[in-house]
Amino acid sequence: xxxxxxxxxxxxxxxxxxxxxxxxxxxxxxxxxxxxxxxxxxxxxxxxxxxxxxxxxxxxxxxxxxxxxxxxxxxxxxxxxxxxxxxxxxxxxxxxxxxxxxxxxxxxxxxxxxxxxxxxxxxxxxxxxxxxxxxxxxxxxxxxxxxxxxxxxxxxxxxxxxxxxxxxxxxxxxxxxxxxxxxxxxxxxxxxxxxxxxxxxxxxxxxxxxxxxxxxxxxxxxxxxxxxxxxxxxxxxxxxxxxxxxxxxxxxxxxxxxxxxxxxxxxxxxxxxxxxxxxxxxxxxxxxxxxxxxxxxxxxxxxxxxxxxxxxxxxxxxxxxxxxxxxxxxxxxxxxxxxxxxxxxxxxxxxxxxxxxxxxxxxxxxxxxxxxxxxxxxxxxxxxxxxxxxxxxxxxxxxxxxxxxxxxxxxxxxxxxxxxxxxxxxxxxxxxxxxxxxxxxxxxxxxxxxxxxxxxxxxxxxxxxxxxx
Length: 469
Description:
By secondary structure, this protein is an alpha+beta fold.
């Protein structure tokens, strides 16, 4: 009996100790645990309650995307070409090997009456252009004009009602690291939106051979996106998607767009003048580097080093000299040639620019007036420049361009026939030329298989004609 009584007392005592411990330690902590469990700061956050993960000032692309997709169109390019593949039906029925070839890309509506900007390579060689809007309405399109140098083209459709359109933004104000959207039709997937940031500006993919100045982004761009829109978070058009850098043909992280300031100027020129009006400063050179800095004994490492100034150019008349370092143009920082060429591509002949230069350790700003292109190179022949009145009078002609430098391939042959620097070319492919703009237009419109026919006045004042392949 005593053993049973002892066992009961021990059990009661153990229960009392357990209850007291619970009251003292566990129950006091329970409210704190319950409060944390109910708090939005506990465990996995959800979007409607955790502002740490979704701040109020987070960028919202929905409005930009919604507005842009309705202004981006699908462009179909139909051309006819010869196929190397001859089918059995061709042999039986005598069908032509000519086949319709269809390519596609994107375009951006830039006016309510149907003007559309796209890439030149999207519409190049087209026999027929067809545009499909985001609402699936389809229109035949007319080619208004192109500029192969910037890879920009302008086409137009005639809609029954006003269309939604994108407005141009200022690409000069776009910042590296800024969020952007790419909108287009990759792989015939209509109205596709991708996001990324601006990775670089004034990117030249040609190694300095051409006046390229692309915006580089990491927004996914694939075949079919060409000609589509690159917009900022406000939905403003800041670029025309043009190229990707890839070893596979598909996007691997780098895409490039023509800046909107260049694209807008090109289409405005096409509408107003029928061609692109290029304003030229008239300097040659390259990016300042350590070797040049050491040679000049200066501490500067950024800028455009002027190696030479073209006679009679805007730079020459403004007093810019060989050895000057261009630091800015109109408050746009210049660190390399693509910075300079990219900004000048937004200007026309006759425009004034403020050029900030470094000379003899002194910074000064000079106003220069841009001029028309003064020279043009024909690879088979040489460098041509505009001729002045006295040079034309010397050869007894009223118009033409002068030979500034003969190309190496035919220089010895031409000189043996009294053709030298300073002689005057009066026509190319049976079209009279007045200046290098005429030459550029003729060469641009020439078929790749068409011979190059040059009519000139030689050093003896004799009229001669040459054909080049």
